[in-house]
Write a structure and sequence with these properties.
single chain; 575 residues; alpha/beta; Rossmann fold; six-stranded mixed beta sheet; 58% helix
């Protein structure tokens, strides 16, 4: 461990350390600069790209007869320049992104600023990528201080070079950029023309001065500087806190790096132990997924069987006419009985046979896709196989004699008396009782006829009487469409209700089977967790040997931590 010396220079703690990272030194120096560079007056600082018009803007705002900030066609501002107007201080900065030195100079000036004017040339349209990154740099430098946006003013210069409609489009686009990047619009945004203002002052033309909008911006700045003057001491405390925290963070990072050099380690053991922990997490996640999948399957293990319904005939309208309503009704009754009623019970018998044939297959374990018991076992096999594959993928790069593994073989009792993992419980099926009552339920043919036979009549012309009057004879027709529909609906409902009782019995058997499957999976997954725990215990023994050596390094690291505390304490003394 190299020696770390702490010296007191100009009343501020400063670090000197062989090969110590510059970031830590800069963090300590920033604390010193904050204390030494603090001024009671509010500092108004500009920030922006090269040739955005920052210096010209400050010349217009400052109000001096002689323009204090240099301007020109080429880059003129390379160092921050402060001008005191008696009430507050203007700070003109170099343009960002011209080179690294200018950007650092601008950021350094902003470190002590109280009010920030971000200057953008309206001729360029919306903000470019470098400007967005520059604003983010400012925000990062404050540590995302909540007061940053309250102290941020966006100024668009050279407004006279654009039409009003174009300026409105540009400002709208910039607001959209802010919303997309920072989820907020600029709290204050001004569109000005510095050159128009300076010409107005030089020619003493108030119209030019007013049209430049510089007076509006200056009023806003003076109002904000008066407000900020009362807040400056509290901001000093906030900045001090932020820089101390930044120094502590960087110092802690360096201590962590030194610790990695001071401590002995067994990287392979650490990685293996980490892999073991990841395996545990994988096993838990995939086991939960398998449990949820089996639970979902258990809630609906067997699909309802919808036995096909044999349709009745379609001749439900009479093709003949009848001389009386009674004869039409009798013909309808005869035709309905032949076409529908006589097929009702045979169709139900056929449905019963199909239901029995469908469910009889579930009395045995059939290893075919689509069979519910087989599909449930395959889900378990796949889930456990996924666990095995994931564990092997995590551990295969390490020297392990054997990988933890779960058996994916499940045996099912088939009646031969051999011990098996799963037992298929026979469904308690009764094709009589409730099943038959539901299947053959009906109201009787007369009920369907009375409620649903329709007769209709019409007058048929048969000639003229001896007096010359037209003679008509009334004729009748029938329709049993509604009766046929009612009987068909009755049959469909009967089959569905009867099938429910058989389905319920097989559903109970399937739920019992899946419950057994869940229990076997839980047992096997618990066993593989125990194997992982045993492997982890062996790895920890290797790590414990390393820890004995590392205890000697703890005292040295504690000394460094004490030094960091002393640095903070000395800064507290300076305050």
């Amino acid at each position: 461990m190299r020696n770390l010396n702490v010296e007191r220079i100009n009343g501020i703690t400063k670090l000197k350390y062989e090969l110590f990272p510059p970031a830590v030194l800069q963090a300590a120096e920033s604390i010193r600069q904050l204390e030494d560079g603090f001024v009671s007056k509010v500092i108004v600082c500009n920030f922006g790209m090269v040739k955005a018009g920052k210096s010209t803007l400050f010349n217009a705002l400052s109000g001096f007869d002689q323009q204090p900030f240099a301007t020109g066609e080429i880059r003129t501002t390379v160092q921050a320049q402060n001008v005191d107007n008696g009430r507050f201080i203007w700070c003109d900065t170099p343009g960002i992104q011209a080179n690294e030195e200018d950007t650092e100079e601008a950021l350094s000036a902003y470190a002590n600023a109280d009010l920030l004017l971000f200057v953008h040339n309206a001729i360029d349209g919306e903000l470019v990528k470098q400007e967005m990154e520059g604003i983010q740099l400012l925000l990062d430098q404050t540590g995302n201080d909540s007061s940053f946006w309250d102290r941020f003013i966006l100024v668009l210069t050279n407004a006279g070079q654009k039409e009003d409609a174009e300026l409105m489009r540009i400002t709208h686009s910039i607001r959209e950029q802010f919303l997309k990047r920072w989820s907020r619009e600029p709290a204050a945004m001004f569109v000005v023309d510095s050159l128009t203002y300076l010409r107005g002052v030089g020619r003493q033309q108030q119209v030019l001065i007013d049209n430049s909008c510089i007076p509006l911006l200056l009023d806003h700045i003076e109002t904000r500087t008066r407000q900020l003057a009362d807040q400056k001491l509290s901001w000093l405390e906030d900045k001090r806190k932020h820089r101390r925290e930044n120094f502590q963070r960087l110092f802690d990072q360096e201590l962590a790096r030194r610790a990695s050099e001071a401590y002995a380690s067994d990287p392979e053991a650490d990685k293996l132990l980490s892999a073991m922990e990841q395996c545990h997490s994988i096993v838990r996640t995939k086991a939960k997924a398998l449990e949820d999948e089996l639970a979902a399957l258990q809630s609906n293990p067997i699909a309802r069987y919808h036995a096909p319904v044999e349709p009745f005939g379609y001749d439900y309208n009479s093709s003949y006419v009848y001389s009386s309503e009674y004869s039409a009704e009798q013909a309808a009754r005869t035709q309905f009985e032949k076409q529908c009623w006589n097929k009702f019970h045979p169709s139900l018998d056929t449905a019963k046979g199909m239901i029995k044939m469908h469910y009889d297959k579930l009395d045995h374990y059939i290893a075919e896709p689509g069979m519910p018991y087989y599909d449930a076992v395959q889900k378990a096999v796949k889930g456990i196989g996924d666990i095995n594959t994931a564990v092997v993928e995590k551990l295969q790069r390490y020297a392990i004699s054997s990988y933890p593994k779960i058996s994916t073989v499940f045996t099912v009792e088939n009646g031969d008396g051999k011990t098996a993992d799963l037992r298929l419980k026979k469904a308690d099926v009764d094709y009589y009782g409730d099943f038959s009552r539901e299947l053959y339920e009906h109201h009787g043919m007369d009920w369907y006829m009375r409620a649903n036979i329709d007769t209709d009549y019409y007058d048929d012309y048969v000639g003229e009487s001896w007096l010359g009057n037209a003679k008509y004879k009334r004729k009748y027709k029938y329709s049993f469409y509604d009766a046929r529909r009612e009987l068909l609906e009755q049959m469909t409902t009967n089959i569905k209700n009867a099938e429910y009782y058989i389905h319920a019995s097989y559903k109970r058997a399937a739920i019992d089977f899946i419950s057994q499957l869940q229990a076997r999976c839980t047992e096997r997954i618990a066993a593989v967790k125990n194997q992982l725990d045993q492997l982890a215990a062996d790895v920890k023994k290797r790590i414990n040997k390393v820890e004995e050596h590392n205890q000697l390094a703890d005292s040295k690291l504690n000394e460094l931590r004490m030094i960091a505390e002393q640095i903070m304490q000395r800064n507290d003394d300076k305050q």
